[in-house]
Design brief:
The protein is an alpha+beta fold and 921 residues long. Helix content is 40%, strand content 17%. It is built from 30 helices and 31 strands. Strands 5, 6, 7, 8, 9, 10, 11, 12, 13 and 14 form a 10-stranded mixed sheet that branches. A 4-stranded antiparallel sheet has the order 4-3-15-17. A 3-stranded parallel sheet has the order 16-24-23, with helices on both faces. Helix 4 packs across helix 5, helix 6 packs antiparallel against helix 12 and helix 18 packs across helix 19. The chain is elongated. The protein binds one RNA strand of 74 nucleotides through helix 11, helix 20, helix 23 and helix 27.
RNA sequence: GGGCGCGUAGCUCAGUCGGUUAGAGCGCACCCCUGAUAAGGGUGAGGUCAUUGGUUCGAAUCCAAUCGCGCCCA
C-alpha cells in the first residue's frame, strides 16, 4: 500500500493508559504507600455517611507464625465488606485485632528456652511470650497490609494490652457478681511427670503396651428376669488396672444385646457378640449361653466392687461399644471424661484417689502410697487374682495419649477448676433467644450455633498455664475461703491496667488487697493468690465488650462478625456467652461464615500432602489483586478450592478485565466529560443499547454486593467484559474512535459511553482489586475527581438509560449477529473470502426482523451501523418471505488505506474512502 | 461413632415452585487479524447433574441409602 495514514488515526497510545503488564508485585506497594501518605483510612471515615455506621468487628487471629491462606480468605472478605459498605454510604471503622495469650505461644517460647538449656521462671517466661507475640503482631500486620487491607493498622487491639487485660479481670468480676462463676471438678488429661494438666493440642498419641485385664464383678442385685441368680457376675475389661480402686459403676449400651454365659460353675454377663472371642481369649471351650437381654433391661442391677465393700450399679451409656472388651465399661468417674459425664448423670461421687504425682491417696485404701504404674497396676492385678476376680490378663498394644513434652503416658484426673455456669438465671435460654434475633449467613449457621449452645457444658475458664491473665481470686491461708468481691477485683484491675498482668505473678497477695484486709469468714490476714489463668477463649470472647465499647467510634453490638464456620463453636459462642452474661444481648446483629480453603481436589491442605498454597508467595509472584480476585471468585459460604491451576485461571481473568479497562482508558485520553460528552438523546441506538445493558449489569452487580455474593459479581463482570465489551461493543466502535474526526459526534458519542463504562466498572471493582482500580482511577478523566477511587461512591442505576424496548429490539439483532458470524465463518472456510473485513453480507430477513433492521440505513459507507455490528465492510437488508438467510460475498470496491473498510467510493489516487477523505481533509 | 454441610463440563459458577434438547464465562481445538499486539475477533467440541433405589405423567431439583470430601464434636 502506497499511503500510510496511520498517524491521522486517533489510536490509543501506550503512555496514555495503564500498562498491559500489571507487574502487581512491584506496583501494589506503591499504591499502598500512596494510601498511607494520604491517610486513606482516616479520609474514608471522614466522608459523609448518609446510611450511618456499619461496624464489622474483627475476630482476632492468633499472633503466631506467618499468615496462611485461611487468613487471606477471611481478611480479604472483610476488606471487601468494609470497602463496599463505605462506597454505599456507610461509615465503616475497622479495627483489626490479635489474640496474644495462650498455649501455642507459651509452648513455642518454652521450646526456645529448652533448646538453650534454660529453665525460666514464670515471669521470665511471660515476658518472653509477650515479646514473641509482639513480634508476630508486627509480622502479620505487614503481611495483612500487603494484602491491601484498609483499617486502623496503626492502632489495632491486642488482648495483651494492659487495658484489655484489666478489662478481662473486670468482666470475670462482673460474671462472678452476677452469680455465674463457681468452682467445681473436671476431668483433665494429666501428666504425672510434669504434674500439670494438658490441653488437647499438647497430647500426642503413641503406641503403648498396657496391662489389659478381664475382671468379674459379683452381682448383688440381679437384673429382672435373669435366667439364674446363682453365682452371677458381670464381666468387664480394662487397660488401666490402677483405675479399678476408683470404680463406681458398670456401663452398658441400652440397645446392645447381652448374654448370660454359664461356664466353670459361674454365669457371666457380657455382650452377646463378644462371647466367642472372649471365651477364646480365656481358653474356655465349654460354655453355654443361657439367654440374652438388651442393655436397657440391665438398668437397676447392682454389682459389688471386687476388692472393696462398695456397690457398683449398672448404668446406661451410649458410648459403650461391642468393638473390643466385653461390652461392659468399667466406670471410674474420677478417671475419664465419659466416665465423669456418666457419673454426673447418675449422681455418683467423683472419686479420684490419685494425687498430682500419680500416687494413690488414702482414698485408695490398701493401695495408698503406691505409684499407679507400674507398682499400682501390679498390686491391683495381684489382689484381683487373690480374690478370684481376675479371669484373664494379657499385654495389649494400642494408641495411647502421651505428654508432648516428656512423653509420659497421660492419665485422667479430676481437678478443681473455675467455671462459668451456662444455665445460671436462664442464661442458655436467653442465649438461644438471642440467636434467633441474629441474621445468619448462610442460614445453616443458625442451626449450627443453636446446636452448639444447646449442647455445651459449663465453660471451664481456668488453665494451669503461665501465659494468660490470672484469675483474680485469693484464698485465705487459714480457712481456704475464696476471696472474690467487686472491690478486690476492681483493685486488681486498676493495678493491671497500670502495670500489666505480669504484676499478678510478681507481687504478693497483700499488694492487691486493701491494707488491713481480713478474711470475712475466719478473720485471718494471710492470703495466697489463685495461680490459674483464664482460658484464651475468654480473652477473645470479651473483645465485643473490650473493643467495641472502649472505642468511641465503635458500638456494641457489632453489625457483623465474619469468620470461618469453625467459629460457631468457638468465637461466636464464647462472645455470645459473655455478651448474654454481661449485657444480656448478642454482640452481633449479623454473622457471615465462610468455608475452609482446600486444594484443587477438595482435600485439606497439609504440609505432608505438599498441597499448601502460601498467600505470601502468591502475592510475591502474582500480586495481591490476583489473590483477592480469587477470593471474590469463590462461593465462599462453602469450602473453597485453591491450586496453581486455579490461580492460573484467575490470573487470566484478571488480565482480561485489566485489558478491557486498559482499552477504555486509552481511548478516553482526549475526552473531557464536561465539554465533550454527547447528550443521551443524541447517541445512536447502539450506544444507548450499551448504556441500557450497563444498567442491567450494574443492577446485578449491586444486588450481588448486597447479598455478599461476590462470586456472582465476579462472574458477571468477567462475562460483561468479555462478551458485551471486548467481543462486541468495543470492537464495533473502533472505527468511530480511530477514524472519525476527533470532535465528531460519532466519536464523542462512543467516548461518552466508554466513559460511563469505565467509570462504573472501576468503582464496582474497587473493593475487590483496590490497587488496579486505583491505577485506573488515576487515569480516568473524572471531573472534580476524588484523590482516590476508595473515596468515591458506588454508581446507582440510571432508570432513564435502562431502555427496555431498545434492549428487546437488540435481542434479535444480536441473534442475527450470531447467524451472520456463522455465515461469514463458513465463507471463510470455503475460501470465498479471506476474512470478515473483505466481506459484504446481504441479509434476507423475514418480518418482524426486517422491520427492525429497516430502522438502520445501510449505505456503502462507514456509518452503516449494521455492517459495523456484524464486523464486515458492507451490509444490506432484503425482505424475505422464507426463513432468514445471510448471503456472504466479497465486498465490491477497494480497501480504504486509512480505515481499512472495503468500500466502493475509495479514491484510486489517495486510497481514501469518502469519509476518510473528509476527515483527513 | 454423632451433628452441620457439600458433590452440575478440564476450571470457576448459574440453574426460581419438580416441567422443552441442563446454561454461562474461562480453558481447549481449529481459523482470522496484526491499528487493544506478551493483545483482539470468529467457529466448534466438551455433561451418566457422585452412585443406587424410590416418589411422580415428569427429577439436577423431592425422599432414602451408599460412596467421596470438609467443619465441629466424641
Amino acid at each position: 500500500m502506497a499511503h500510510n495514514y496511520r498517524d491521522t488515526l486517533h489510536l490509543p497510545k501506550d503512555e496514555q493508559t495503564i500498562a498491559m503488564r500489571a507487574n502487581l508485585p512491584e506496583q501494589e506497594p506503591r499504591w499502598q504507600a500512596f494510601w498511607r501518605e494520604i491517610d486513606l483510612y482516616q479520609r474514608m471515615l471522614e466522608k459523609p455517611a448518609p446510611n450511618g455506621d456499619f461496624i464489622l468487628h474483627d475476630g482476632p487471629p492468633y499472633s503466631n507464625g506467618d499468615i496462611h491462606i485461611g487468613h487471606a480468605l477471611n481478611k480479604t472478605l472483610k476488606d471487601i465488606v468494609v470497602r463496599s459498605y463505605r462506597m454505599r454510604g456507610y461509615r465503616t471503622p475497622y479495627v483489626p485485632g490479635w489474640d496474644n495469650h495462650g498455649m501455642p505461644i507459651e509452648n513455642a517460647v518454652s521450646k526456645e528456652f529448652l533448646a538453650r538449656g534454660e529453665k525460666p521462671d514464670k515471669i521470665t517466661l511471660r515476658r518472653a511470650c509477650r515479646e514473641y507475640a509482639q513480634r508476630y503482631v508486627h509480622i502479620q500486620r505487614e503481611q495483612f497490609e500487603r494484602l491491601g487491607l484498609v483499617g486502623e493498622w496503626d492502632n489495632p487491639y491486642l488482648t495483651m494490652d494492659y487495658a484489655f487485660e484489666a478489662g478481662l479481670v473486670r468482666i470475670f468480676g462482673e460474671l462472678a457478681q452476677r452469680g455465674y462463676i463457681y468452682r467445681g471438678l473436671r476431668p483433665t488429661l494429666w501428666c504425672p511427670t510434669c504434674q500439670t494438666a494438658l490441653a488437647d493440642a499438647e497430647v500426642e498419641y503413641d503406641e503403648k503396651t498396657s496391662d489389659s485385664i478381664y475382671v468379674a464383678f459379683p452381682v448383688v442385685k440381679p437384673p429382672a428376669d435373669a435366667p439364674t441368680t446363682e453365682n452371677l457376675k458381670i464381666l468387664i475389661w480394662t487397660t488401666t488396672p490402677w483405675t479399678i480402686p476408683a470404680n463406681l459403676a458398670l456401663a452398658v449400651h441400652p440397645e446392645l444385646e447381652y448374654a448370660y454365659v454359664r461356664t466353670n460353675g459361674a454365669v457371666y454377663l457380657l455382650a452377646h457378640r463378644l462371647v466367642a472371642p472372649t471365651m477364646e481369649a480365656f481358653g474356655i471351650h465349654d460354655y453355654t449361653v443361657l439367654g440374652t437381654v438388651t442393655g436397657e433391661h440391665l438398668q437397676g442391677a447392682v454389682a459389688k466392687h471386687p476388692l472393696f465393700e462398695r456397690e457398683s450399679p449398672v448404668v446406661l451409656a451410649d458410648y459403650v461399644t461391642a468393638e473390643d472388651g466385653t461390652g461392659v465399661v468399667h466406670t471410674a468417674p474420677g478417671h475419664g471424661a465419659e466416665d465423669f459425664a456418666t457419673g454426673k448423670k447418675y449422681g455418683l461421687p467423683i472419686l479420684c484417689p490419685v494425687d498430682a504425682a500419680g500416687v494413690f491417696t488414702q482414698e485408695a485404701g490398701e493401695f495408698a502410697g503406691l505409684p499407679i504404674t507400674p507398682e499400682g497396676n501390679r498390686a491391683v492385678i495381684q489382689r484381683l487374682r487373690e480374690v478370684g476376680a481376675l479371669l484373664h490378663y494379657e499385654p495389649y498394644r494400642h494408641n495411647y495419649p502421651h505428654c508432648w513434652r516428656c512423653n509420659t503416658p497421660l492419665i485422667f484426673r479430676t481437678t478443681e477448676q473455675w467455671f462459668m455456669s451456662i444455665d445460671h438465671a436462664g442464661h442458655r435460654e436467653r442465649a438461644l433467644n438471642a440467636i434467633r434475633q441474629v441474621r445468619w449467613i448462610p442460614p445453616e449457621g443458625e442451626t449450627r450455633i443453636t446446636a452448639a449452645v444447646q449442647n455445651r457444658p459449663d465453660w471451664c475458664l481456668s488453665r494451669q498455664r503461665a501465659w494468660g491473665v490470672g484469675i483474680p481470686a485469693f484464698y485465705c491461708e487459714a480457712c481456704n475461703a475464696v476471696i472474690l468481691t467487686p472491690e478486690t477485683v476492681e483493685r486488681i484491675a486498676q493495678i493491671i491496667e497500670r502495670e500489666g498482668s505480669d504484676v499478678w505473678f510478681e507481687k504478693p497477695a497483700a499488694y492487691f488487697l486493701p491494707e488491713g484486709f481480713v478474711c470475712p469468714q475466719c478473720g485471718a490476714s494471710e492470703f495466697r493468690k489463685e495461680t490459674d489463668v483464664l482460658d484464651v477463649w475468654f480473652d477473645s470472647g470479651s473483645t465485643s465488650r473490650l473493643v467495641l465499647e472502649a472505642r468511641p467510634h465503635l458500638h456494641y453490638p457489632a453489625d457483623l462478625y465474619l469468620e470461618g464456620s469453625d467459629q460457631h463453636r468457638g468465637w461466636f459462642n464464647s462472645s455470645l456467652m459473655i455478651g448474654i452474661g454481661t449485657r444480656d444481648a448478642a454482640p452481633y446483629r449479623m454473622v457471615i461464615t465462610h468455608g475452609f480453603v482446600l486444594d484443587g481436589e477438595g482435600r485439606k491442605m497439609s504440609k505432608s500432602l505438599g498441597n499448601v498454597v502460601s498467600p505470601l508467595e502468591v502475592i510475591q509472584n502474582m500480586g495481591a489483586d490476583v489473590l483477592r480476585l480469587w477470593v471474590a471468585s469463590c462461593e465462599y459460604f462453602e469450602d473453597v478450592r485453591l491450586s496453581q491451576e486455579i490461580l492460573k485461571y484467575v490470573a487470566d481473568a484478571y488480565r482480561q478485565i485489566r485489558n478491557t479497562l486498559r482499552f477504555m482508558v486509552g481511548n478516553l485520553a482526549d475526552f473531557n466529560p464536561e465539554t465533550d460528552a454527547v447528550p443521551y438523546e443524541q447517541l445512536n441506538d447502539l450506544d444507548r443499547w450499551m448504556l441500557a445493558t450497563l444498567q442491567e449489569y450494574l443492577r446485578y452487580a449491586l444486588n450481588a454486593y448486597d447479598s455478599f455474593e461476590y462470586h456472582k459479581f465476579y462472574h458477571e463482570t468477567r462475562r460483561f467484559c468479555n462478551v458485551e465489551l471486548s467481543a462486541f461493543y468495543l470492537d464495533v466502535i473502533k472505527d468511530r474512535l480511530y477514524a472519525e474526526s476527533r470532535d465528531s459526534a460519532a466519536r464523542r458519542g462512543a467516548q461518552t459511553v466508554l466513559y460511563e463504562l469505565a467509570h462504573t466498572l472501576t468503582r464496582l471493582l474497587a473493593p475487590i482489586i483496590p490497587h488496579t482500580a486505583e491505577e485506573v482511577w488515576q487515569r480516568l478523566p473524572v471531573p472534580n475527581k476524588p484523590i482516590s477511587v476508595h473515596l468515591t461512591e458506588f454508581p446507582t442505576v440510571c432508570e432513564a438509560w435502562h431502555d427496555k424496548a431498545l434492549l428487546e429490539r437488540f435481542e434479535s439483532i444480536l441473534q442475527l449477529r450470531e447467524a451472520a458470524n456463522r455465515a461469514v465463518e463458513q465463507a471463510k472456510n470455503e475460501k470465498r473470502i479471506p476474512n470478515p473485513q473483505s466481506a459484504k453480507i446481504v441479509i434476507h430477513a423475514p418480518e418482524p426482523l426486517f422491520g427492525t433492521l429497516s430502522a438502520f440505513p445501510t449505505p456503502a459507507a462507514p456509518d452503516n451501523l449494521l455492517a459495523r455490528i456484524f464486523g464486515v465492510s458492507q451490509a444490506t437488508i432484503e425482505p424475505s418471505v422464507s426463513e432468514l438467510q445471510v448471503e456472504v460475498s466479497l465486498a465490491p470496491g477497494r480497501k480504504c488505506a486509512r480505515c481499512w473498510l472495503v468500500l466502493p467510493n475509495v479514491d484510486e489516487a489517495t486510497e481514501l474512502c469518502g469519509r476518510c477523505q473528509a476527515v483527513v481533509g
